[in-house]
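Dear colleagues,

As part of the handover before I leave the project, I'm documenting each prediction I ran so the next person doesn't have to rerun anything. This entry is a single chain, and its sequence is reproduced below.
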Amino acid sequence: MYNEQLEKLIDLALADGVLTEKEKQILFKKAESLGIDLDEFEMVLDAKLHEKQQLQPKQTEVTPKSNKFGDIKKCPACGAVIESFDIKCSDCGIEFRNVKKNGSINKLFKLLNNAKEEKREQIITTFPIPNTKEDIVEFLSLALPKATIEEDNELLYAWKAKCEQVMIKARFLLKNDPKTLGEIEKMYSIEKRKKEKRKKREIIIGSIISVFIITLIGAIYIHSLNVKELEKQVEKYIETNQFKKAEELVISTDVYMEERDLISLKSKIQLKKLTNKIDELEKIINEKNYSEISYKFKKIIWKKNSTGPYEDIERNSYNIFLKRQKALNDKLPSKYKIKIKDEFASWTDIFH
């Protein structure tokens, strides 16, 4: 049905009647490289797996006396019947150890290191939540910092969502272990406070730098140029893609400009920056690397600068950006098109 090499990989993967997540990733990657529709391929793969399992002799399963998570029916020490999610026997008090892990944080990091950039968010989102308190503590101790450090962290929201899922699981599993749960809650609170302190420190530092820039640049420009000349200078920087200089000049003069003029300049800067990114994607669209283009395209988002009566000024620039977005989206195959909302983006703090 498919390429000989792909068929051979499928046979090897299904030889034992089990398809692991790693084997599935390899097969999907190969199928995608051959231009095979992934939904169709998944359906064929499931059918082949089912057929293979039907041919294997069925064995009578006997539940062993084990403390393996999910198979536990009775306490291995006293034989008392226990609930499926208990981590400690309510009769004798023995704590269930050596529980098979769904997957450690180290395994997750290994998967992320070996994955393409556009696949990492999905890996974090779908990664199994730990089942034991040791795994939960280990997971949160290494993952929480990644859910709070915003600088150069494109996976911030994925890490935050995963940590919140682990916390929900911890509160359920450890409801009878208040000491451990208390330590985990404390760890969670500490990371949140660290994040808040970092934001306050950044605001203070940013304010000091802004005052310095306003004082220094303002002293040089304000006395020699009027507002119209400043606008011309900003627009000149925009035309030559000197966005940092344009933004610094706007910051240094915002107290002297009308709100409508300030919003107009900020919108022009943002429009040029975003359309430049769209231009870069259009240059490589003939290479047909649609997965990478779609991934980068999703990150080109308009950040709202205005409120109230001045929104219409910004919306003029936003509408131009929206047309460019739709134009690029129309060039992509339907499978890789992004969902475009005809509205301004909204932004919220990760812990609110």
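The chain has four domains: 4-55, 61-100, 105-196, 263-336. Confidence is low (pLDDT under 50) at residues 61-72, 98-102, 345-352.

All the best with the project,
I.
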